[in-house]
């Protein structure tokens, strides 16, 4: 069986648990090989927000890339992937993506995904959004990215933050046609 590849980028915005949950959900699918790239800001945010050791994040990925390695496989368009999820996506990373400013591997991988017309899913984390943030999200969407903002869900009556995260991750994975066992979709009244 040939595995499909998905790149997961984690940038320095609050909400690194979104990246962890995305990797964990993808790890449950043996047909998917994950390639992880973590920004320096995300590493620091992990230390501030997570009780799990950083090694737990790395263990979820099949391949871990150094964000400074612009010669990594995921920096090349000839390296076939289904696309990339950036979870969370900081406003700095969003600005870098929409301006083609590929100063690190996370930004370069996103640039490659867009230029190769592959799926790029961004989970922007900021509140409130300013006009500049909204403009950058609109630009990203015009360039082919999908914005899956990590917003609260209510129709599935979640009881925990983990259920909220599972819903957001499920929405992101839907963009790739992939299931997420913990995702509770809308159900019409019967």
Q: Span between N and C termini?
A: 39 Å
- Give the integer mean of the pLDDT values: 94
Largest sheet: 6 strands, parallel
Strand proportion: 15-25%
Poorly predicted residue ranges = none
Structural class determined from secondary elements: alpha/beta
Number of strands: 6
Question: In angstroms, what is the radius of gyration?
Answer: 16 Å
Morphology: globular
Strand order of the largest sheet: 3-2-1-4-5-6
Percent range for helical residues? 25-40%
What string gives the helices and strands in order? Answer: EHEHHEEHHEHEH
Number of helices: 7
Tag the structure with descriptive keywords.
alpha/beta, 7 helices
In brief:
With 190 residues, the protein is α/β, with parallel strands linked by helices. The protein is built from seven helices and six strands.
Structure, explained:
- There is one protein chain.
- The chain is globular, with a radius of gyration of 16 Å.
- The model has no long low-confidence stretch (mean pLDDT 94).
- The chain has helices at residues 16-27, 40-49, 54-60, 91-98, 105-115, 131-142, 161-174; strands at 4-10, 32-38, 63-65, 83-89, 119-124, 145-147.
- Helix 6 (131-142) links the parallel strand 5 and strand 6.
- The chain is 39% helix and 17% strand.
- The termini are far apart.
- The protein contains seven helices and six strands, in the order βαβααββααβαβα.
- It has 190 residues and is an alpha/beta fold.
- Strands 3-2-1-4-5-6 form a six-stranded parallel sheet.
- Helix 4 (91-98) packs across helix 6.
